Automatic annotation (TrEMBL):
Domain of life: Bacteria
Record key words, sorted: Selenium
The Rhodanese domain, residue ranges: 18-133
Organism: Alkalibacter saccharofermentans DSM 14828
One record GO biological process: tRNA wobble uridine modification
PROSITE patterns in the cross-refs: RHODANESE_3
Xref: SMART domains: RHOD
Pfam families for the chain: AAA_SelU, Rhodanese
Protein name: tRNA 2-selenouridine synthase
A molecular-function term among this protein's GO annotations: tRNA 2-selenouridine synthase activity
Length: 368
């Protein structure tokens, strides 16, 4: 009745719900997709039990835990678990090593309901190691096929048309450039890796010949791709999409101004809005000041300030095209030209969006 499972692959492929009974401070550092934190001990209770364990041993620590979590408090925590299990009867329980906390949770649930639950054998640590192993290049069967192109080429939107894509920017919750911050914060590094591993395992299960990816640096905002995995992605064949400057500028304007402002406006109840968006853009400009050069930075900053003032006075956003155009033409394009020229020998196909779409469609339909 207190069984455990180590079928981690099944958990990933079916995205089974998980009950994490660790303390909130542990959960916040890293957890798993589809998990919910319903702790058996809160942070303070865990701290006290930990001190007792170090000073007096396991038996006394367990006794203290039972004393701290008793009566109505124990009843409430059992109710939290059973309410979740009523909605998600296949849910599994885990703690850090699959030991006492998850076993005690299983016991209490069984005593309250008569229903057995499964726990993760080895807990968080064992499942986390399984996911880390999944990101090792030797364990990935498909070959990386990497879409590259100048900023504003619509690479992400194009790749999202195909099931064989692994959306690195989506997993990192970042647009992948100096101005790519989203309203919602990025995941912790551990959660980014865990979620990436989920996607890689699910991709591998479908036996695609190619894994479609966007050309990314190792860092996507504050998230970073594991070193060996990033090196593996860099060995992939490259597909170069060509998009006219005017269209790319429209795309940047739409994404970094119109859509981004809407995101901040929707979050205005949390103290965001236009001023918050403007602060983020201004800070992003300041971060690349040295790379822009003093003169270019001054022009871009002035253009941004003029556009923001115009928007506040008239509601017209079009002047934002000016600073976006400066960045695109004088910062991003030279940088990407240099990078693409250095990768020229790895390019297996290039064309406009329609031509690249057709090529990727053919490649994404191939299986091992």
């Amino acid at each position: 009745m207190f069984d455990a499972t180590a079928d981690f692959k099944k958990i990933v492929l079916t995205e089974l719900p998980l009950i994490d009974v660790r303390a909130p401070i542990e959960y916040e550092k890293g957890a798993f997709l589809n998990s919910v934190n319903l702790p058996i001990m809160n942070d303070e209770e865990r701290r006290l039990v930990g001190i007792c364990y170090k000073e007096k041993g396991n038996e006394e620590a367990v006794n203290l835990g039972n004393k701290l979590i008793s009566g109505s408090l124990k009843d409430q925590r059992i109710k939290d678990w059973t309410d979740f299990l009523a909605k998600h009867p296949q849910a599994l329980i885990y703690c850090f090593r699959g030991g006492q906390r998850s076993r005690i949770s299983q016991k209490w649930i069984y005593e309250a309901t008569g229903q057995p639950t499964l726990r993760l054998d080895g807990g968080y640590k064992a499942f986390r190691n399984f996911l880390i192993d999944a990101l090792a290049p030797d364990n990935i069967s498909s070959s990386p096929l990497v879409l590259t192109g100048y900023t504003g080429s619509g690479k992400t939107d194009l790749l999202l048309e195909f099931d064989a894509t692994v959306d690195l920017e989506g997993l990192a919750n970042h647009r992948g450039s100096s101005f790519g911050n989203q309203v919602n914060t990025q995941p912790t590094q551990i959660n980014f890796e865990n979620n990436l591993a989920y996607r890689v395992i699910q991709h591998s299960s479908k036996a695609y010949k190619y894994m479609l990816l966007e050309d990314e640096g190792r860092n996507i905002g504050r998230s970073y791709i594991p070193k060996e995995l990033h090196a593996y992605f860099k060995l992939g064949e490259l597909v170069l999409v060509h998009v006219d400057f005017d269209i790319r500028l429209e795309n940047i304007f739409d994404e970094y101004v119109i859509k981004s402002q809407l995101e901040y406006e929707k979050a205005s109840m949390e103290g965001c809005g236009l001023d918050k968006w403007a602060s983020v853009i201004s800070n992003s400009l300041a971060k690349i000041k040295k790379r822009l050069g003093g003169e270019c930075y001054a022009r871009a900053s002035k253009a941004f300030e003029d556009a923001l003032l115009s928007q506040k006075n008239t509601g017209d956003l079009t002047l934002h095209m000016v600073w976006a155009g400066i960045l695109l033409k004088e910062y991003y394009d030279p940088m990407y030209k240099y990078q693409i020229d250095n990768k020229r020998e790895n390019i297996v196909f290039e064309g406009n969006t329609a031509e690249v779409r057709e090529y990727l469609n053919e490649k994404s339909s191939l299986y091992l």
